[in-house]
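User: Here's a structure from my thesis project, written as structure tokens. My advisor, Dr. K., wants to see whether a designed sequence matches the one we expressed. Can you design one independently, without my sequence as a hint?
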């Protein structure tokens, strides 16, 4: 699963520190940090129990810059 937390979230430091201490590779961006966790790993279960209420799953249907849905433009011939 691909998760993120907004930089401005009050729990940001705690979540990032927890992930870093467990060796999770972080993708740091200006307004958010993302990471992957294997749902079959017990680390994923612990993460969800601790932080599911403050972190979100990356939605592949949304533009990660704007947070808005991707729109397909149909070309007319």
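Assistant: Designed independently from the structure alone:
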């Amino acid at each position: 699963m691909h998760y993120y937390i907004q930089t401005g979230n009050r729990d940001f430091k705690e979540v990032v520190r927890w992930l870093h201490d467990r060796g999770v590779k972080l993708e740091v961006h200006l307004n958010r940090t993302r990471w992957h966790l294997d749902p079959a790993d017990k680390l994923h279960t612990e993460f969800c129990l601790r932080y599911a209420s403050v972190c979100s799953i990356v939605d592949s249907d949304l533009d990660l810059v704007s947070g808005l849905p991707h729109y397909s433009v149909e070309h007319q011939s």
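When you compare it with your expressed construct, this may help: The two ends are 40 Å apart (CA to CA).
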